[in-house]
Known about the structure:
353 residues, 7-stranded mixed sheet, Quinone Oxidoreductase, Chain A, domain 1, 6-stranded parallel sheet, Rossmann fold, alpha/beta
Amino acid sequence: MANNKNKRNQAAVMTDVRKIELRDVPMPKIGDNDVGVAVESVGICGSDMHFFEGKAFHIFPDSLPFVLGHECGGTVYAVGKDVKDLVPGNRVALEPGVPCGKCSLCESGRYNLCPNVVFMATPPHDGALMRYIRHPAHKAFKLPDNVTTQEGALIEPLSVGMHAAQQGGVCVGKSVIILGGGCIGLCTLLAAKAYGATQIIVSDLFQNRLDKALELGATEVVCAGKGDSVQGMLALTGGKGADIVFETAGSGITAAQTSFLVKSGGTIVIVGNIFEDVSFSFRNLYRKEAQIKTVFRYRNTYPTAIRAVASGSIQIKSILSEQFSFAEIQQAFDKAVDDKQNCVKALINISED
């Protein structure tokens, strides 16, 4: 284990709604099966923004002060005595959810549904916006030499897109509609393309997001704010609808559109967080004998996602729109929340002063 005496730890602590400040905090204590990680890159996720705006505190009251961030890449600086596969100097991507490994869901392989999971930046557990953190070694995935720690931080949202594509059964020859061109929509696009979808239609309200979708491999785009976007998307599929329809915007409006857009025998995948009640046409669904699947985080995706990035099959860094230093943490969150149209994915780069 490395010597921590000369290391100074800091955390970006959320102290109030829309207020974050850097504070000195103790160095983490590394257990026998843990690694100590010098954090280098952390992405700002939609759930982070919900906390920052104060929208999540009805679910997690009295949780301030609190450290956000769960999309994390960094370099190992210390290992516990029972860690065999990692050594100081290894660069890693951290899977933020640590399941119990003992419940029936864990034992069945569906560990993302573990009721006892410890997930970064989910109260009472602090997140990764610190200079140094502790993490269980089995959830720290070594990065190949040609994958940066910035890309390592983006493995987390990519994993959501890959799990969504797996849930939908995307494969060569399939047609796909993605409702929403934000970070998760773009990650779903990248995953669908990598899995072989031959038609990928993306719909969003904002033209800059549609332009980015075309850049990343969408075959067609439809502006949701102009005309009848549902009919526009159907026309692009020859009136039949798509094999797989992904709702990634987290909107009741787009969720209600899915049954009109899915092909007979097709699959709807709900990826976005939809909090409101939705008026949904189940008649469309049963007449088409279509099915609905849902996504909650991901499971067993990190190794595959890392290999896809390393091989060049997925250019995950292309979704980045803004980068900030650790000292600019307040500015970074303000930008992410106040300019959602343009700030699709912001990344915090943490380094020694």
